[in-house]
Amino acid sequence: MINRSAHLSADAAAGVTAGAASGAMAGVTAGATTGAADITQSFPLPTVRGRYAFAFDLSKVTWFKVGGMAEVLFRPKDAEDLVSFIKDKDPMMPVTMLGAGSNVLVRDGGIKGVVIKLGAGFADILFHYTPPLAAVKPSESATSAESAESELATTASASAAESPSATAAAEVIVGGACLDRTLVLACAEKGLSGLEFLVGVPGTIGGAIAMNAGAYGFEIKDFLNWVEIVNTDGSMTRLSAASLSMGYRKGNLPKGAIIVRASFALQNGDPAVIHTAVTAYLQQREDTQPVRGRTGGSTFKNPTGMTAWKLIDQAGCRGLSINDAYVSEKHCNFLLNRDAAKAADLEQLGERVRQAVKEASGVDLEWEIIRLGE
């Protein structure tokens, strides 16, 4: 367990007083919850410039709006603060990384130890112009989930490679906590093309790299130059995209690595064409996915040569429910929390879908959503 009283800086202490912040940044006073009262002296917390919050309700920061408590939530101020924490913490202290909370299911028992959530200090976007790069083609390992995606991939190829002004290239360096959509829109404003497909992918750039996120025939590895990580010993390493051997929904990063920033290669493009592609992706997502609901995004990975949603539909699982957890009628590779579902309901429903698909088609669906905690 964690010693909540040890070694808080002035900034950190501000994060654990009642009313110090609202929403996800809110801390708790000593004894405010049972979880806080149970914290022992086993793992003294390092001095930090960021914020600690104790017995933090993770349902506040996950898209499913379910999950138990984080024993401690740590929001580092910047990369230096994160490195210092990792180096100074007890090596036996459990640490879990949480991004935007979009593709995770936190179990009802919560997460022991420290949950790290990066914030504004890890969301900068820097642009550098570079010599021309070759046009990027859709990744061979990517799999389209809907038939309409091939048309959108064609639009994206036009904005990335066929634009009359695509005669130069640029590098964008971005923090791991930057939201995918934020980066795409910033690039669009600069007339830089390549990452348009990410605009409808929920989550952060760090999370997108960790799972090699993709859509419409493209994957993030197609544009990645390098990624900078903090290792479990607190050292920082820059890894080239080629060295990672990234695959379908696999970033192949070192175990326990935390992404602090990354570099992408982009084409100069016609802003009008880029905005057309972005608008098309957003409309496609609105038309085909339950974007207004409490969901974690695509639940299962697409098996090779197949699409998960079709297998789920063919198995008769569209609309299937357990309590307030249900399979979306709009896109049945999405699970939703209607109102008061528990994480256990959603996980049980997912396993029931997997069983039904196995019985109907012989295919073992693999979870794409990451399940955390107890």
Instruction: Please give the share of residues in helix.
Output: 25-40%
Strand content: 15-25%
Count of separate DSSP helical elements: 10
CA-based shape:
globular
Q: Poorly predicted ranges (pLDDT <50, ≥5 residues)?
A: 5-40, 132-168
The top level CATH class name of the largest domain: Alpha Beta
Mean pLDDT: 83
Supply the number of structural domains. Answer: 3
Q: How much is the radius of gyration in Å?
A: 21 Å
CATH third-level topology of the largest domain: Uridine Diphospho-n-acetylenolpyruvylglucosamine Reductase, domain 3
Write the CATH architecture name of the largest domain: 2-Layer Sandwich
Q: What oligomeric assembly is this protein in?
A: single chain
Structural class: alpha+beta
Count of DSSP E strands? Answer: 20
Query: How many strands, what sense, and barrel or not for the largest sheet?
Result: 6 strands, antiparallel
**What order do the SSEs take from the amino end to the carboxyl end, as H and E?**
EHHEEEHEEEEHEHEHEEEEHEHEHEEEHE
Q: What is the CA-CA span between the terminal residues?
A: 15 Å
Question: How would you portray this structure in words?
Answer:
The protein has helices at 10-14, 34-38, 79-88, 149-162, 180-189, 205-210, 241-244, 271-288, 308-314, 343-361; strands spanning 2-3, 43-44, 51-57, 69-75, 95-97, 104-106, 111-116, 125-130, 169-175, 192-193, 214-215, 218-219, 224-230, 236-240, 258-268, 294-298, 321-322, 325-327, 334-337, 370-372. The protein is α+β, with helices and mostly antiparallel strands and 374 residues long. It has three domains: 2-117, Uridine Diphospho-n-acetylenolpyruvylglucosamine Reductase, domain 2, CATH 3.30.43.10; 122-282, 2-Layer Sandwich (Uridine Diphospho-n-acetylenolpyruvylglucosamine Reductase, domain 3), CATH 3.30.465.10; 293-369, Alpha-Beta Complex (Uridine Diphospho-n-acetylenolpyruvylglucosamine Reductase, domain 1), CATH 3.90.78.10. Helix 5 packs antiparallel against helix 8 (271-288). The protein is globular and about 50 Å long.
